[in-house]
Amino acid sequence: MTMTYLQKLEAESIHIMREVAATFSRPVMLYSIGKDSSVMLHLALKAFYPAKPPFPLLHIDTTWKFREMIAFRDKTAIELGLNLLVHTNQDGIDQNVNPFDSGATAYTHMMKTLALRQALDQYGFDAAFGGGRRDEEKSRSKERIFSFRDSKHTWDPKNQRPEMWRTYNTRVNRSESIRVFPLSNWTELDVWQYINQENIPVVPLYLAQRRPIVRRDGMLLMIDDDRLRVRQEERVEELLVRFRTLGCYPLTGAIESSARTVPEIIQEMLTVRTSERQGRAIDSDEEASMEKKKREGYF
Amino acid sequence: MRMVLDDDMLIEQDAPVTNTFLRVLTCGSVDDGKSTLIGRLLYDTQLILDDQFSALKRDTKKHGTTKGDDHLDFALLVDGLEAEREQGITIDVAYRFFVTPKRKFVIADTPGHEEYTRNMATGASNADAAIVLIDARKGVLRQTRRHTFIASLLGIRHIVVAVNKMDLIQYDQDRFEAICGAFQAFSETLGFRSVGFVPMSARFGDNVITASPAMPWYKGRSLLSHLEAIDVDEDRVDQPFRLPIQLVSRPNLDFRGFSGQIAAGRVSVGDSVVVAKSGQSSRVKSILCGRDNVETAVDGQAVTVVLEDDLELSRGNMLVAPQNRPQLADQFMAHVIWFHKEPMIPGRSYICRTEVDSIGATVTTLKHTIDINTFAQKAATALQMNEVGVCNISTQAPIVFDSYRDNRNTGNFVLIDRFTNATVGAGMIDHPLRRAHNIHWQAGDIDKHARAALKLQTPMVLWFTGLSGSGKSTIANIVEKLLHARGKHTYMLDGDNIRHGLNRDLGFTQEARVENIRRAAEVAKLMADAGLIVLVSFISPFRSERRMARELFEKGEFVEVFVDTPIEECARRDPKGLYQKAMAGEIKNFTGISSPYEAPASPEIHLRTMGHEPLDLAMQIEKFLDEA
Ligand SMILES: Nc1nc2c(ncn2[C@@H]2O[C@H](COP(=O)(O)OP(=O)(O)OP(=O)(O)O)[C@@H](O)[C@H]2O)c(=O)[nH]1
Ligand SMILES: [Mg+2]
Hints:
The structure holds 2 protein chains of 2 kinds.
Chain A: H1 5-23, E1 27-30, H2 35-48, E2 57-60, H3 67-80, E3 84-87, H4 90-94, H5 104-123, E4 127-129, E5 146-149, E6 177-180, H6 188-198, E7 209-216, E8 219-222, E9 237-242, E10 255-256, H7 262-269, H8 281-284, H9 289-296
Parallel strand pairs in A: 1-2, 1-4, 2-3, 4-6
Antiparallel strand pairs in A: 5-6, 7-8, 7-9, 9-10
Helix pairs in contact in A: 1-2, 6-7
Chain B: H1 8-14, E1 21-28, H2 34-44, H3 50-63, H4 82-87, E2 94-99, E3 104-109, H5 117-125, E4 129-135, H6 142-153, E5 158-164, H7 173-187, E6 194-199, H8 223-229, E7 242-244, E8 247-252, E9 255-261, E10 266-268, E11 272-275, E12 281-289, E13 292-294, E14 296-298, E15 302-307, E16 318-320, E17 327-338, E18 349-353, E19 358-370, E20 377-378, E21 388-401, E22 412-416, E23 423-432, H9 434-441, H10 448-454, E24 460-465, H11 472-485, E25 490-494, H12 495-500, H13 510-529, E26 533-537, H14 543-551, E27 558-564, H15 567-573, H16 578-583, E28 605-608, H17 614-627
The structure holds guanosine-5'-triphosphate and magnesium ion.
C-alpha cells in the first residue's frame, strides 16, 4: 500500500494546517476565491474533520472582482457554514483608487497590499494561510512554507529562517506573524488534477464559455460590468474564453479556449505554452515586481 | 531527442509513487553551475514556457553572466531574487518541479556560498538524492566537501557527481577521471549507497539529458538518466508504527481523535498502541483519513485516530507500536549543525523543537566539532556558524524520539533562540544518554538538585533587605520578570503579602519581627528545595535574623541584596503614607523612625538606589547572577 503523488501532497498540506492550528493563537485563511483557495479550503475541511476548520476565512475585496466570484464566495461560506470576513480598504474607495485611472501598481498596493495589512492588524492575526505555490513565479519558488513577517508585515528574502524537515519554527513575538503556504509544493497541474479527483467546486469562469471581450494592451478583458469603459476604437466580441487565474476583472486576461470541463482543462494544460501568470497585468508591470510586492506585505 | 509532455504524465499521477518520484538537490561550491544546470534541465525538458523564455532573453541582456556571447544565462531561470540576479549568485534555495515520462522531480537549487550553508541544509533536509557539482577546472573544493558531508549527515544516500564545465577543459577525460578519484577517496566513509559520475556542461547541455558528441569516450548515463535510475526504496512502511500527535480533535463530547501524520509503519483498526510518554496502552477504534473511515493507514498519511480508552494524550506525545517503542529521555547525544552568527555555547538555554514537541533545552557538553576537510574530530568550546558538532543535550522534560539513522522524521530537532525566535541550529539525534534513565528510575535521587536540574537552574534565595519604601518589592519584581523571561522558575515572597496570610497572627514587636523572618526564611528554604529561585523582599531590619536565615542555606545559595535608600528619600516617597503616620506617632515600632534598621555590613549586592532606575538596579542583580 503506497500513496499516490496527490495523496502525498494532500498529506503534507494537511500536516501544515494542523501545525498552524495547534501552535498559533489567531490564525486566518486568506480566501481569494480562485482555484488554489478552493483546494486549500477543501484540504482544511479534511484536516480538521469532523470538526470545522478552527479559523475564519478572510477575503480582501477590492470591489473589482468578477461578479461570479463574489456569488461563489458567498454561496461557499453559507453552504459550508464558515465564518467569512470581508475587508475593503475604505481609504482607497474614498480616494477613488481604481484599476483604470490609478495604474496597476498603485491600485494593487492600495486595494490589496494595504488592505491586507489593515485587516491582519485589525483582527490581530498571527498566522495567515495563503494559496501561493512555488511553481507560480520565481520569487515564490524561493519562499519558505512558514514565511516570517516582522511587525510591519515585511518579508526579508535574504534572511529567511532555515526550514528543516517538517519541523517548523512556529514561534513569533508579539505583532510579528507568519504567512503559511500549504500548497507550496503543488503545481498548477497538480491543482487541476486534484480538483478533478475530488470534485471540488470552482468558479465557472475557469471553464470556457462565450463571454463579451475587448482586446486591450494585449489582454483579453471581459466586460463584467459597465465600469469597464469601452473605448471608441475597441470592439466588443463574443469569444469562447476561460481564465487561468482569477483576480480583479480589469487586470485579469482571459485565454481563448474550448475547455468546458475540468478534464479538458487538464488536457489543455499539457499543450499550453504560456505560464499561468501571463494573463495578469500586475506582474509584467515592473521588473521583479512580485518580489517587491511580497516584501511590502502582498501575499 | 527532446521530451514532450504527453498523456503518459496523466496516468503517472495515479500510479504509486515509490520510485516514480524523487526529491533531489543541487549542491557544491560557488559558481560550479548548479543553477545553470537546473535552468538547463527545465529548458531541455521543455518546461520553460514561451513568456518565461522571452523573459529569460531579456534578463540575460540585463543581468546575465554570459553577456559577452550569445548564450542564455540559464541560472536566471532559478535565481529569482533581485539580490541574486544583481550579484550573480544564489542566496536561498529555490524549489522547482519537473516531470519526465519516467519520474516526477522536486529539485531544490541550493547556494554554494559558505555564508548560506543554512539554506543548503534546508534544501537537503527533505531530499532523497543530491547532485554535487564540481567545476572541472577547480576539482574538489572545501565547499564540495562540506556539502557532501552535510548531505550525508542529513541522511542522503544517493549522490550524482556532475563534473561540470567540461567545455572549458577541452572535454579532457583524464582530468574527469582524476576528479572522480579524488571525490571517491574523500567520500568513502560517508555511507553513500550509490555514487554516480557524469562529465557535463550545464551551459551547453552536454550529457545533461542527452549523450554529448563532444565526449564520445564517455559511455555512461546522462545526468537525467542517472536521476531517473536512482532506487530510493526507503520503505518506512515496514518500520515500527509512529504517530506524532499534532493536535487533539474534540468537536463534541462524543468524539476525541488524535491527529497527526504517520512517521513510520502502519496502523489498523483493532491494533494495540502505546502512548510513548506514559506507557499507557489502548486499541485503535477507528481511523479517519480526511473524511473517510479507513481500516489501515501507512507512513506518510495524515490521519485522525480514535482510541478505545480515554487516555492522557496531547500534542508533543506519540502513539507507537507496543513491541518496538521509541526512546523517552531528557538527555541525548546529537549531531548539531549551527546556523547562526552567534555561536552555540554549552550552558545556554534554547527552545528545542521536534516535529510536534517544544521544550526548553541546554547543550550540556560540546564533545567535539568535525573538521570539514579531514572529517577529523576537533576539540572546541563553541560551535561557530556553519560548523557541525557532536553535543550532549538536556531538555527540561523527557521528549520522544528515535535515532535519526532509523527515522529522519522522529529523530530530528531544531534549536530556536528564546528571545528572537530565530532558528539557530538543527540536530540529528544519535542516542539517549544513560543519565536520563538514572534520574527517572531512581526515586532516591529526586532531591533538590534533581528538581533544579529539570528546571535547568541553580536554586537560590535573593534576600532583599532595606527600609520601608526603599524599592525592594519594585526591584524584586523586575528581577523576577527578567528571570522568568529567561525560562527560570521563580517565586516571590513579599513581606506585606505574607503578613496577610501565613504571618497574619504576628505584630511588629521585636519578637514578632524575629518570628516573621524565621517563617519567611523557612518557606524560602522549602522553595529552594523544590528547585526554585526565591525572591524574598522583607525589611528584615536585624542582622542576627538575616544571619539566621543565611545559615539555613547552602554556601552560595543565599544572596543578600541591600536596597540602600536614605531614609529622607524613603520618607519623601512614602508610597503607603506610613512615614507620615509614623512621624505623627500613629505607628509604633516603625523601622527607621521608632525602631532601628541595622544595615548589612557585607551584603553580596549593595544597591545604592539614588539616581538609578529600578530596571538598571534589577539588571545589576541579573548580572551578578550570570557571573555567579
Ligand atoms: N563554460 C561553462 N560555464 C558554465 C557552465 N555551467 C555554468 N557556467 C557558468 O558559471 C557561472 C556560475 O553559474 P551558476 O549556475 O550561477 O553557479 P552556481 O553553482 O549556481 O552558483 P551559486 O549558486 O552562487 O553557488 C555562470 O556564469 C554560468 O554561465 C558550463 O558547463 N560551462
Ligand atoms: Mg546557484
